[in-house]
């Protein structure tokens, strides 16, 4: 079993489960399991309900066996099902072969008025988003106040360590090592609502969920990440993953990048960067440098014309790091093209079109052919934030950049890629922001001043070759904020070890578990 459908705060339904699924279900917050599938319906391949009952009971979960026959569900079944929901602890997961019978008997119980009208759900703290920011801030809050009532709203089953996708595209990391089941990273003590948010209602201190229900809160943390706007480039979605068009910004495409890099013997390789802001502003270059390093070491670089088409006007936003990057641009013979924004792709024709802005501000459209095209899509805040009372003029969740408290609603905080703070949108920034939000939110709840202030810290490990990294660490205004007393503009093997080996362990074993190693912002 990989997924379930939430019908209410008390009930979700799924297809057939097995005994080994119970650990993940318990971690996801379920306390009752209801079997609606008769034994032996699927022959010897069907897991026995007795085995599932034993696995559930071993975890302290309740189990009920209420077999239902397809097309024969009646009022008596609905009454028995309603009794299970009323008498056993919630939330419950009901299952059958596909989940349809479980949903049918639930709807019949509702129709007959057998289910009590639920009071609106509520939590002390509601966190929207189960990515890096959401999981880490929940764990940090619980590390400070273990009895805090927290709900995380997150519809996805899988949690990703996205910073390693660049390494996957460069053949230096296994893609499967960047993904884990969402249930495995959900902090113990947190209630996980496997739904999406449909609408924010901050004036009423509530969020409206995708199933139409509402969830009230005392404090809200907004961290759903940003939206990769693939459709903002004409023709791109139709050709991604084929015809030499790829992107390390998607889990399923990063391995294709590495396939293309290995197979390209000659021709034209174009790497693009859209207008800011984007998550990890150095990632478009990282893909290019790792590819060039592979081609150089395999003796092909002289046969490959590499071009970097950047919608911006500079190679990197912090001037300190431009000279060391330019050394690698020159080493690899890369053609730099600034003020060029990718607007259209025709994969079968191996052609990309760019809107080019000249020094007078005039825009012209230029076509370029390619053999490999690595695309970084334009990025923006999700619709639910962009079209909400929480948004600033650009669509991001408006916050005070130092406290990360909403500028519109005092009981709302935001962190991660969606917030308006003018920092680099990186996982490293989230590590510091987590401390700020956790401490300031608890201070607000206790009626104290919010003393913890964010310094704008962000880090971009620039993988300039396989085995060396320029570790760019900086805060608001481009102020250098190096963690270690080393010249940050020098490419180092030690920083590659940090990027490829240490930081993934820090992420999974420390950050997502509320252990804040080197995570406190500097005093401001």
TrEMBL record:
Residues 124-242 form the FAD/NAD(P)-binding domain. One of its GO terms (biological process) is sulfide oxidation, using sulfide:quinone oxidoreductase. Residues 7-110 form the Beta-lactamase hydrolase-like protein phosphatase-like domain. Its cofactor is FAD. It comes from the Bacteria. PANTHER family: SULFIDE:QUINONE OXIDOREDUCTASE (PTHR10632), SULFIDE:QUINONE OXIDOREDUCTASE, MITOCHONDRIAL (PTHR10632:SF2). This is Sulfide:quinone oxidoreductase. It comes from Paraperlucidibaca baekdonensis.
């Amino acid at each position: 079993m990989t997924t379930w459908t939430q019908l209410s705060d008390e009930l979700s339904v799924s297809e057939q489960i097995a005994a080994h699924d119970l650990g993940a279900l318990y971690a996801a917050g379920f306390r009752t399991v209801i079997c609606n599938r008769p034994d032996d319906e699927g022959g010897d391949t069907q897991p026995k309900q007795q085995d599932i009952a034993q696995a559930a009971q071993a975890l302290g979960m309740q189990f009920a066996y209420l077999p239902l026959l397809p097309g024969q569900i009646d009022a008596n079944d609905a009454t028995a099902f309603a009794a299970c929901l009323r008498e056993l602890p919630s939330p419950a997961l009901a299952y059958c072969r596909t989940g349809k019978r479980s949903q049918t008997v639930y709807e019949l119980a509702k129709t007959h008025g057998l289910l009590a009208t639920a009071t609106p759900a509520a939590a002390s703290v509601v966190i929207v988003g189960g990515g890096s920011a959401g999981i880490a801030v929940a764990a940090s809050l619980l590390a400070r106040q273990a009895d805090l009532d927290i709900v995380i709203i997150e519809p996805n089953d899988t949690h990703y360590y996205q910073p390693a996708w660049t390494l996957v595209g460069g053949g230096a990391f296994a893609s499967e090592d960047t993904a884990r089941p969402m249930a495995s990273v959900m902090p113990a003590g947190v209630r996980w609502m496997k739904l999406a948010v449909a609408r924010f209602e901050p004036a009423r201190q509530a969020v409206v969920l995708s199933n139409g229900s509402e969830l009230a809160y005392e404090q809200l943390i907004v961290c759903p990440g940003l939206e990769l706007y693939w459709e903002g480039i004409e023709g791109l979605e139709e050709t991604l993953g084929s015809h030499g068009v790829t992107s390390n910004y998607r889990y399923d495409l990063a391995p294709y990048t590495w396939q293309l890099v290995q197979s390209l013997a000659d021709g034209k390789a174009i790497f693009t960067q859209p207008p800011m802001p984007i998550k990890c502003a150095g990632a478009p270059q990282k893909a290019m440098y790792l590819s060039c390093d592979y081609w150089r070491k395999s003796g092909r670089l002289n046969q490959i014309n590499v071009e970097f088409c950047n919608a911006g006007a500079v190679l990197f936003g912090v001037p300190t790091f431009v000279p060391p990057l330019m050394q690698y641009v020159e080493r690899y013979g890369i053609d730099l093209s600034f003020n060029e924004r990718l607007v259209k792709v025709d994969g079968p024709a191996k052609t990309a079109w760019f809107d080019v802005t000249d020094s007078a501000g005039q825009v012209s459209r230029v076509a370029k052919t390619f053999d490999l095209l690595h695309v970084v899509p334009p990025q923006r805040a999700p619709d639910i934030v962009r079209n909400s009372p929480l948004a600033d003029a650009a669509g991001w969740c408006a916050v005070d950049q130092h406290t990360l408290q909403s500028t519109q609603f005092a009981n709302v905080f935001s962190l991660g890629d969606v917030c308006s703070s003018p920092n680099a949108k990186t996982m490293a920034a989230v590590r510091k922001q987590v401390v700020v939000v956790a401490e300031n939110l608890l201070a607000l709840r206790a009626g104290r001043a919010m003393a913890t202030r964010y310094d704008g810290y962000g880090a971009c490990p620039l993988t300039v070759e396989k085995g060396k990294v320029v570790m760019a660490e900086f805060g608001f205004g481009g102020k250098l904020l190096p963690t270690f007393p080393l010249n940050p503009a020098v490419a180092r093997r030690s920083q590659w070890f940090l990027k490829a080996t240490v930081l993934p362990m820090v992420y999974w074993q420390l950050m997502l578990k509320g252990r804040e190693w080197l995570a406190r912002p500097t005093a401001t």
